[in-house]
Amino acid sequence: MRCPVTQKKLCLAILLCAVVAFAQVRDPLPVPDIPGYRTLKCDFHMHTVFSDGEVWPTVRLNEAFRDGLDVISITDHAVYNPRQADVKIDLARPHELIRVAAERMGIILIQGIEFGEGDIHANALFVTDPNSLRSNELLVALRGAVKQGAFTFWNHPGWRRKVEWFPLIASAYDEKLLHGMELVNGATFYGDAYPYIEEKKLGIIGTSDVHGLIPGRGRALTLVFARTADAAGVKEALFARRSAAWMGGEIWGFEEHLRGLWEGAIKVENPDLTWHPGLPGAFLRLRNLSAIPFRFRVVDAPKWLSLSGGEIREEKTLGVPLRIAKDTPPGMHSIELGLEITNLHVGPGQNLRVKLPLRLEAGKSIQ
Ligand SMILES: [Zn+2]
Ligand SMILES: [Zn+2]
């Protein structure tokens, strides 16, 4: 029997609906690669209904795709599972439920778990059997995770109490069970814990630790500088401390990596400037190709040149007026402006410093 026209239309509508249901808009969240490494945008700390989160694991995956992420890990609590009357707690399930879809979307999925003993929490990534790690003793759980080859990090280090190198953390660290630390968790930067990064040679992590819904661009992230864009590449990079935390327009990382971000993101549109007598100055155009804003102040410039700091907003061009003194020597000047990038932090109280090479030709008839 042939399908009547109305039925055909219905079939087409159903087919279209099915296609639309899978269509998702992705924020490209552009962040440059750095020399030798791919820059991957990662969230290594998220919850679902399998512990105290409010969403099903597929929501986490869809949010990650929408927000332009490359890597995620669902890290439900090992023993804090307040929804167990409604949801059968199997900590391998969140990962399993989205494994195929993540592959289809091109998102790298890493199996993880969060442990807690009192207010001291840690995450373990790359675990192979999370259910075998369901202990409320931190050291027992971490030992098991490390045996499974995990990369582990100390979560929200100053949560509910003033941060210090707690005896439990010290024991874990001394046993080589702790590899990184959340410098950023959600909207909180743990500045008091920042010195531990260098002192203890820990990896820098930033995470959303989200429990509800994420509204869109702006969650705290870890940038991982990986040799290869796959789980093995992420793991190697984390153990090698090639990572940075990004939250609210601020990035904390190591100097060589943040320098790579600046150099990859900022293009001087007119590095060869000319200035004619009678004009008030020249106009420098700095283009930001990335989703990272860069705020700068000038720390070094020739005496005859002055300019103000500013913000090169994400994916925008900033026009910077250069004021040029009347007694500027005529001719071609190859100069390097010294800038401090005040939102790129390379250590406690230390910001990235960069050089901006320019050539400026000054007219001859300067009065
Ligand atoms: Zn926690
Ligand atoms: Zn958590």
List the SSEs and their pairings.
Elements (H helix, E strand, L loop, with lengths): L4 H18 L15 E6 L13 H10 L4 E4 L18 H13 L2 E10 L2 E6 L12 H10 L3 E4 L12 H8 L5 E6 L2 E2 L4 H6 L3 E5 L13 E6 L4 H9 L3 E5 L2 E3 L2 H11 E3 L3 E4 L5 E8 L5 E7 L4 E2 L3 E3 L4 E8 L6 E17 L2 E13 L5
Parallel strand pairs: 1-2, 2-3, 5-6, 6-8, 11-19, 13-20
Antiparallel strand pairs: 1-9, 3-4, 4-5, 6-7, 9-10, 10-11, 12-14, 14-18, 15-17, 15-19, 16-18, 19-20
Helix pairs in contact: 2-3
Can you describe this structure?
There is one protein chain. The protein is of the alpha/beta class and 367 residues long. The protein has 2 domains: 24-253, Alpha-Beta Barrel (TIM Barrel), CATH 3.20.20.140; 262-362, Sandwich (Immunoglobulin-like), CATH 2.60.40. 23% of the residues lie in helices and 33% in strands. The protein contains 8 helices and 20 strands. It has a 16-stranded mixed beta sheet that branches. A 4-stranded antiparallel beta sheet has the order 12-14-18-16. A hairpin with a 2-residue loop joins strand 19 (331-347) and strand 20 (350-362). Helix 2 runs parallel beside helix 3. It is elongated and about 80 Å long. Bound molecules: zinc ion (2 copies). One zinc ion is lined by residues 114, 116, 121, 155-156.
